[in-house]
Amino acid sequence: MPRIVFLDLETSSLEADGGIIVGAGVMSEAGESEYFEARRTGQEKPLLSKLLKRLESSEVIVTWSGRGFDIPFLTTRLLKHSMDPRPVLGMMHIDLNEVVKSRLRLTFTYLDHVCDFFGIRREKGPMGLEVPSLFVKALEGDEAALRSIRDHCLDDLRVTREVFLRLRPMLEGQLAWNTPKGRGDPKILAKTKRIMR
Question: Whole-prediction pTM value?
Fold first, then answer.
């Protein structure tokens, strides 16, 4: 099986030309997490360097709504700092929100509702939209605000991993295809095409 990493970004704005990445969390399939933090705007480039180095050891990125937000935001910020986004863009990416929307039939497809459906407990902390105001407090020296951003990111990673584990039977073909053996195996390729429909 390919090496999987779960990725979640916390940003100071919803738009990458108006904000920065203030926190980046990664988690292994085994549940081991790392968090990279920018306490000041000038610390974003070192955060990006550490994040890229960490992602190098993986083959598949798994996110929640990452195709529309995390990956484009990350790509934009890498380019802003004259850093090459191709290592990230070249990796297989599974956006679990897209999987849920296209393969399940739920009333709502936002992460909290999917967690409720699967009985996955969430920590009750700040929402993602609160991160920009928390970052302003952090710039003013509020350590509790920094911890809140970190805790929110790591909780998002934890529940994204748990949702992935629930959805994994539907993703086996995609994951098998991403191995060197899988790319050349006609049985796996046929199975992957059926699964991705």
Answer: 0.87
